[in-house]
Amino acid sequence: MATTRLSTYAPQQVTVVITQDTTGLSHILGGYSEDGIVSVDRNVEAYTLYTGADDSNTRVKNSNSSGTITINLQQSSASNDILHGLFLDGGIFTITVKDASGRSNYFSDEAYVGDVPGGAFSNSLNTRDWVIHAPKMSEIIGGNSRLSPEDAAALEQLGVNIEDRWL
């Protein structure tokens, strides 16, 4: 049974970093929307269930590791200019999404801006939702609390390495 411990999630410690070797660009995105920072989704499930006519079942591992990273920026954010410049350039870049207050991390070294977001203007601040395509995405998904000895032992049995600061 998992032990419940106090967790701390700090939204200001979520960073999205874009680098591009061909131009030397390195940019930490900022000016996020009030309601959202970033969302990361895989494009397909890792496994697909195949059921035969005789009700025999096989799971098929999908080699597709692609995903989308949606970044929610205020319309006033200078990061809109950076992302639009990357779109116009048509270039490939590296993207890292990291929660420094926890153990989650997403990475792709072959990302690109799929399309520009729509624009809206009103009496209040609007958002620009940028969809980044990540054809080869890797992820580490973890929590935000220190681990109990029992949870640490279970993770060790699964072959998961945990930094000492979480123990």
What is the gist of this entry?
This protein has 167 residues and is mainly beta. The protein is built from two helices and ten strands.
The multimeric state of the shown protein is: single chain
Kindly report the average pLDDT value.
94
Secondary-structure element order, N to C: EEEEEEHEEEEH
Whole-angstrom Rg:
19 Å
Number of helices: 2
Query: What CATH architecture label applies?
Result: Roll
Strand-pairing-aware structural class: mainly beta
The biggest beta sheet reads: 8 strands, antiparallel
Portion in strands: 35-45%
Span between termini: 17 Å
Specify the helix fraction band. 10-25%
CATH C-level name: Mainly Beta
Number of domains: 1
Outline the low-pLDDT stretches.
none
How many distinct beta strands?
A: 10
Q: Label the overall shape.
A: globular
Q: Could you please say which CATH topology applies here?
A: Pnp Oxidase, Chain A
Describe the model.
- By secondary structure, this protein is mainly β.
- It is built from two helices and ten strands; from the N terminus they run ββββββαββββα.
- The protein has helices spanning 79-89, 149-157; strands at 14-20, 25-28, 38-42, 47-51, 57-61, 67-74, 93-99, 105-115, 127-134, 137-140.
- Strands 1, 2, 3, 6, 7, 8, 9 and 10 form an eight-stranded antiparallel beta sheet that branches.
- β7 and β8 (105-115) form a beta hairpin.
- It is globular.
- The chain starts with 13 loop residues before the first strand and ends in a 10-residue tail after the last helix.
